[in-house]
Amino acid sequence: MSERDSERSISQTVRAQLALRDMILSGQLRPGERISELQAVEITNVSRTPVRLALVRLEDEGLLQAIPSGGFMVKAFTERDILDSIELRGTLEGLAARFAAERGASARSLEPLKECLADLDQLVRQDPVSVEAFSAYVTMNARFHALLTELSASPPLIRQIDRVSALPFASPSGFVMAQSALPEAHQILLIGQDHHRIVVDAIENREGARAEAIMREHSRLAARNLRLALRNRTHLDLLPALALLQSPAE
Amino acid sequence: MSERDSERSISQTVRAQLALRDMILSGQLRPGERISELQAVEITNVSRTPVRLALVRLEDEGLLQAIPSGGFMVKAFTERDILDSIELRGTLEGLAARFAAERGASARSLEPLKECLADLDQLVRQDPVSVEAFSAYVTMNARFHALLTELSASPPLIRQIDRVSALPFASPSGFVMAQSALPEAHQILLIGQDHHRIVVDAIENREGARAEAIMREHSRLAARNLRLALRNRTHLDLLPALALLQSPAE
DNA sequence: GCGGCCACTAATGTATACAGACTGCACTCA
DNA sequence: TGAGTGCAGTCTGTATACATTAGTGGCCGC
């Protein structure tokens, strides 16, 4: 698919949504800052109708918050909010893994997941891991989580996981890039990959409780990454999502 | 227009949303049926702009589904979808209960929950339970679950639970009324109330795992109610939410 | 000097007009 | 007779004008 085509054919609503989301995630719009429709019109150069729709969509996504008197503000998240969102995602992915295990995912449906696992193995084998490999890992990791979620074969659950993962800091790959700057990088990567291996094994053997538990624990790697990244505050630029973090001072 | 005063104060968007939701839940709009904006305008007597916003909101709620070529259709749910939504809600409420326990909900914050528990006890004590008592139970039960959710003190989690519970058949009180017609009514009520008691006790004693487990099990009462109600198909009229159920024939 | 009220401004809520895209049908040509 | 093309009707997407409300600042009265 060509970039230009999609750029041109895309609706004004989506364009506005993308533009505003970028500005929020990049920190150009600060947490707590009020954003009026007219402002959004100025920024995006589309008229109020699609802008409004875009604002509503961003509210669902969780990036904006409606102000009772009308209008929206950029949502601010505490560190606790982020950690809770990660735990929440882990819980839901745990449920997805349990469903996959209990309902007997077929050998055929497990195949793509296993291929993905093998691809990840390739990437993880390097030591030290190149930045490119990290980047590839992020993509592959996202694919692994998506496949796992699909395996639950539960549309309502898939929907919820997608909603939670829409928040960049709650997504499965949200803090992987932060690792790349850490000394513990390779070790954490290996542990994460072991979790992947275990969950596939558990699903294959119909071990629902084990599959669920390991996915919960797996998500806590993201929490660990976040804490490490916040402690050595040097590499926060790798994490644009943290623009939404309420500064502790305020 | 000179409508009633009470209806004039709320916005057209909300009015349209309520009207359309009622029609969907009451079955006047069938699952799978397409709703065009103009149709919605006809139905609600408001103009396209607020109607459109209402349709988008109902899509988020999960009652509608966007059609790729544009427009919306009423979402159809299988029995499995409904059961999964209940399990999902149970899982999230379980997480909320665990958070409440682990984070040490203060004695003060537990008080409203305990009062609610006592009120529910009063209602459950009757045998047989009057229809009015059932109705009061539904209200009180909703309050109990809302208080419990709040106790997690986790905005992201509260948000997700609210989203899931927005689907009427996934809400904590979704199938309580179905019970009232069942011979097992009183017994199920007593069991449910015992779950309530246990979760409060577990939170008080900081037993996170126990609090989580009991809330998961608690939600399965709703699943049981649903199955019973579907088996003796006599009292389905008590459950308007089931208008969204895909008929097995199709 | 302080507090309350009124008026003005600006933003949101709503309606509608216009344009582009898609669907369905009919007609024509091979 | 079948398939393709063109046209018409209708729908969604977008823009904009109008109405209404909330918020703010200044002025007047106590």
Task: Write a brief structural summary.
Two copies of one chain form a homodimer. Chain A folds into two domains: 3-74, Arc Repressor Mutant, subunit A (Orthogonal Bundle), CATH 1.10.10; 79-244, GntR ligand-binding domain-like (Four Helix Bundle (Hemerythrin (Met), subunit A), Up-down Bundle), CATH 1.20.120.
CATH architecture of the largest domain in chain A: Up-down Bundle
CATH topology of the largest domain in chain A: Four Helix Bundle (Hemerythrin (Met), subunit A)
Query: What is the subunit arrangement here?
Result: homodimer
The fraction of residues in strands of chain A falls at: under 5%
Q: Which spans of chain A have pLDDT < 50 for at least 5 consecutive residues?
A: 1-8
Number of domain modules of chain A: 2
- Find the structural class of chain A using helix and strand composition: mainly alpha
Q: Name the overall outline of chain A.
A: globular
Continuous helix count of chain A: 11
Computed over alpha carbons, the radius of gyration of chain A is 19 Å
CATH level-1 class of the largest domain in chain A? Mainly Alpha
Could you name the CATH homologous superfamily of the largest domain in chain A? Answer: GntR ligand-binding domain-like
Q: Helix content range of the residues of chain A, please?
A: 55-70%
